[in-house]
Write a structure and sequence with these properties.
- With 78 residues, the chain is an all-alpha fold.
- It has one domain (4-76).
- It is built from 4 helices and no strands.
- It has helices spanning 4-13, 18-36, 44-58, 65-76.
- The two termini are 31 Å apart.
């Protein structure tokens, strides 16, 4: 069984370049592995990153719109 959204994107994925298909496959493998393990347990490094983010938010340290756009632009160029 596939959801409508999944079926639609899989049709489009077939026209993607091989490197993009491989990247999607790796993401799907990670999701599948996580689902098969049951409840997710973050690593110490991930927990530390979450703590840093929460501290920054409490202190009002947020990225500007320009900084966020710069990060997204970097990934759009791939």
């Amino acid at each position: 069984m596939k959801t409508k959204q999944l079926a639609e994107i899989l049709e489009r994925v077939e026209r993607w370049p091989a490197h993009a298909q491989d990247e999607l496959a790796e993401i799907a493998r990670e999701i599948d592995e996580g689902l098969s393990k049951g409840e997710y347990e973050p690593t110490d490094e991930e927990l530390a990153g979450i703590d840093r983010g929460l501290r920054d938010a409490e202190q009002g340290h947020f990225a500007t719109e320009a900084q966020v756009e710069a990060v997204f632009a970097k990934f759009r160029r791939r």
